[in-house]
Amino acid sequence: MAGRSRSSGLLNAGTTVVASGTNTLSGVVVISDSVNPATITVCDNASAASGTILARLTATTNTGANSMAMITPVRAENGLVVQITGTGTPTGLILYGA
Question: Cα separation of 37 and 44, whole Å?
Answer without folding.
Answer: 24
